[in-house]
Amino acid sequence: MSSLTEKDRPIVQLLLNTGTCPRCILRFCCVGSQTLYRCPYKDLMKDLKEFLKNNQEKEDTVCSDVVDPPCKRIRLEHTEKQPDDLNHNGALQQIPSVINENTAVENSVIEVCNVCLGILQEFCEIDFVKKVCQKVNSADYQFTSFVFSVSLPPQLSVRERAAWLLVKQEMGKLGLSLAKDDIVQLKEAYKWIIHPQLSEDLFEVSVVFAHPETDEECHFLATACPDCFKPAKNKQSVFTRMAVIKALEKIKEDDFLKHFPCPPSSPKNLCVALEIQCNNGAVFVAGRYNKYSRNLPQTPWIIDGERKLESSVEELISEHLMAKFKADSFNFSSSGREDVDVRTLGNGRPFAIELVNPRRIHFTAEEMKGLQQTINNSSDKIQVRDLQLVTREAIGRMKEGEEEKTKTYSALIWTDKAIRKEDIAFLDDIKELKLDQKTPLRVLHRRPLAVRCRIIHTMKSEYIDEHHFRLHLKTQAGTYIKEFVHGDFGRTKPSIGSLLNRTADILELDVESVDVDWPPTL
């Protein structure tokens, strides 16, 4: 075991005798060789035993060169006269100093490690690795990258602290020091062992461990640091990993040693793997949609728990994506939104859908084109175009356009008093008209009360009859067009009604363009 040196010998002997497994011993000896941790458990135990034996033989050789060394018979006779718990110098012997095949080494093979509670023993062997692989294969995921995570019982931090204090004390006798940060973290060691055995190409595999005695072993921390442990929603116990770590940072070493055994006591139970979770990173699909119905909301329309309309733009698009990507759920976003009775025409409105934990992630351009056609054939209420895979970062460009870009509308307007063509002609000459729009009454239940300054860049009127005309507008994104027409009881100033000096209302509204240059045209 070339990674261990002479200075590690007392630490190896100390930990092995107290019931610590070989891999945890390597961690406390600050061994950073990943390959060494992957050796079979029995081989590691054998190597540690050989390491101690070789060093013992060297010591015996050195002793034989000393003038008039005490013979073994004298030493044995001397120790026989001492109490069982005293060493040959007459000092209290807390931990056995002699390792042989029939004592600590053999016991540590069959005993659960008093530091990792068996995680670096039972759950690093090939049988458990096969279970993980079976879970991955049965989940039927496509994947191109590997993330492996581990969730550990909180009391492992407590036991590790106790073992560290033990090693620190022993090294202090040798004039050496050991910082907590020097120890190889249990999570890292576990990943070094498991990660390479799974596959070269994986996504995310997470193993969640638990132990039945977590609350019992951590309870003393709640007395010493009560402010660290507070009940939280969706948490079965206050002894979370972060809370325990926080408490361990606060508690003094002397107080810790009063409440927790050092070295850690032999555990009654092995850790259990509660679940093996598989998860793919989210996939993002973007495109543009047209909405041709005046009775279709963008997202599900639910009021007081009651659904008002049977479908939505979001659902008509996402149901096909969910089926093809085999995702768990989705999140829909778009560059602005239209009301349920407003159509979106022209080149459509940019949208993006985040598909959470998809099983399938690889799609060719032709497959995406076919998926787009499937969506378009499924309904006459919407159509999508430029459907494509994008990155999470690219979606930010769509959101930037919500307030910064312009939008073009077509509004059919009614007036109470008769109008002539020349009565509305002046609207065509108005440029960069500034509005003050107080939050509309119709959205006040979901938007904060505020006065927003918006700009109507251009208007072009189209006379229909003495009570109707069509108005084409190019506006700043975020402008409330309906309120600009009727005034919203004076909450939008000026309005078409105030400019014409008569009552005006909007009968139909269409979005003709959303001037956001995203996603790229295909």
TrEMBL record:
Compartments it resides in: Cytoplasm; Mitochondrion; Nucleus
Name the record gives this protein: tRNA pseudouridine synthase Pus10
Reaction it catalyzes: uridine(55) in tRNA = pseudouridine(55) in tRNA; uridine(54) in tRNA = pseudouridine(54) in tRNA
Top-rank EC class of the record's enzyme: isomerase
Species of provenance: Charadrius vociferus (Killdeer)
Keyword DNA damage: no
Protein's GO biological process: tRNA pseudouridine synthesis
GO cellular component: mitochondrion; nucleus
MF (Gene Ontology): metal ion binding; RNA binding; tRNA pseudouridine(55) synthase activity
Statement: the UniProt record of this protein carries the keyword tRNA processing: yes
